[in-house]
Write a structure and sequence with these properties.
Layout (H helix, E strand, L loop, with lengths): L1 H7 L1 H6 L15 E5 L9 E2 L13 E2 L6 E10 L7 E8 L19 E8 L5 E7 L3 E5 L5 E5 L4 E6 L3 E8 L4 E9 L4 E2 L2 E2 L7 E3 L2 E18 L2 E16 L9 E9 L2 E9 L5 E9 L2 E6 L5 E6 L16 E7 L5 E11 L7 E13 L6 E14 L3
Antiparallel strand pairs: 1-8, 2-3, 4-5, 4-17, 5-6, 6-7, 8-9, 9-10, 10-11, 11-12, 12-16, 13-14, 15-16, 16-17, 18-19, 18-26, 19-20, 20-21, 22-23, 23-24, 24-25, 25-26
Bound molecules: 2-acetamido-2-deoxy-beta-D-glucopyranose (6 copies).
Amino acid sequence: MFLAGLQSSLLAVVATCFFASTTHAQPGQFTPYFVPAAVQNGTSHAQFTSTVAGIDAPKVQPINASAWDWWYFDVVSADPTRVSSVVVIFFTSPQSGFPLIPPSGSGSNVITTAHIFVSFPNGTLWSAAADAEGASVEAGPGGGSSGTWIGTGFSWTGSPGSGYLIRVDAPDIGVTGTINFRPTAPPHYPCGPVSAGQTLEVGPGIGWANAIPDAVSVVDLNIDGTRLAFSGSGYHDKNWSNQVFTSLVGSWYWGHGRIGAYSIVWFDFLDPTGKEAVSAYVAKENKIIATSCALGSITVRPTGQNATYPPVISTGNPSGYHIDFDLGCEGTLVVDVEVLGNIVVVNPEYGRFVGNMTGSVSPMEGEATTGLVGMALFEQFKLTA
Ligand SMILES: *[C@@H]1O[C@H](CO)[C@@H](O)[C@H](O)[C@H]1NC(C)=O
Ligand SMILES: *[C@@H]1O[C@H](CO)[C@@H](O)[C@H](O)[C@H]1NC(C)=O
Ligand SMILES: *[C@@H]1O[C@H](CO)[C@@H](O)[C@H](O)[C@H]1NC(C)=O
Ligand SMILES: *[C@@H]1O[C@H](CO)[C@@H](O)[C@H](O)[C@H]1NC(C)=O
Ligand SMILES: *[C@@H]1O[C@H](CO)[C@@H](O)[C@H](O)[C@H]1NC(C)=O
Ligand SMILES: *[C@@H]1O[C@H](CO)[C@@H](O)[C@H](O)[C@H]1NC(C)=O
């Protein structure tokens, strides 16, 4: 079958510096899943090897008190003079599994919550959350999915090939509108393109699937009577585990953006013992140029103020990051990121930022392309004292 063929042609894929996109639709039924609003007793099974069950299917069942599984979407404005952004997260995660989760709408123990965070063009922050009466997710073998957080007014529908639409109809918490994602870069898993039988572990015990590494996105929201409308680089992934987040992570740097014609996603992580794990992704013209979890395929290091590495809770947030991507036979991509604004309330363990980037590509032979610029949305966790 096609998937077996993809495995055996992996060497050829690397040699030609071209990754086949596997986002072709496959026929098949959508599978319905229901996640109750209450944490469940017993053991949680977490999926760490890809199947045909769908990139956006729930990956942990059931959600016990150590588990977390969520669907994450964001958009960062393409305009370097604005810091507009939006982040929407559909959680099925108890605070005992993901202790950094912001308090739910009502302070209840509901684990099915929808959160929205925005930054206005001038940097003003606003956020809200709503508790659902359970979450309904459908996922098809071709990658299509939909999710409804029951009773909140938050839902998504879409696929990595066709894009996504988030609808928000939550006037009770002050937000209505839509966010859409027209994909410009193929999906991937931590170590390679999307196919069955791939590892989904981006670090020990942490699952990750990136359905939308980059998209042309249009945001049109009404926030407490103020319109927030912008276009930019959109992104969607999901991550999960059946173990408590803080037991798995020492620190992590993650981000995405579009620089020149390149769509990039970076991940550079240390587990609690200081062991590094990485995932590098670069695409251009809707083709993957690099997707790897090999150490050395990417390094992300803090720069400027507070550039302590490894970072610890007591060090402040850095003013930027320096990133080296190995593009194989296309050479190297070097990116400098500078923080323009915090987009979550400042917290010693966690920061999420909007920033600008400059970069260059140096091919194996010939002239470097310099002066690439773009915007990024990125985050860091530091959980080590
Ligand atoms: C989990 O177990 C506790 C203690 O036996 C019980 O009170 C609770 O209802 C159980 N929760 C669920 C979702 O079954
Ligand atoms: C949840 O399930 C996982 C996997 O079986 C287990 O390791 C963990 O201890 C469970 N958590 C709780 C609170 O029972
Ligand atoms: C920033 O923009 C928001 C939303 O338009 C507005 O409510 C706020 O007053 C502005 N703040 C300043 C300092 O201009
Ligand atoms: C994990 O979750 C965070 C927060 O929702 C998200 O920003 C990030 O993209 C995810 N990344 C990885 C590698 O797990
Ligand atoms: C560096 O850390 C200090 C202390 O936490 C903080 O006040 C400062 O804002 C940080 N610098 C940046 C660029 O965030
Ligand atoms: C970010 O933008 C500022 C203001 O235009 C500029 O001074 C700085 O060099 C830029 N930094 C990067 C890394 O692009």
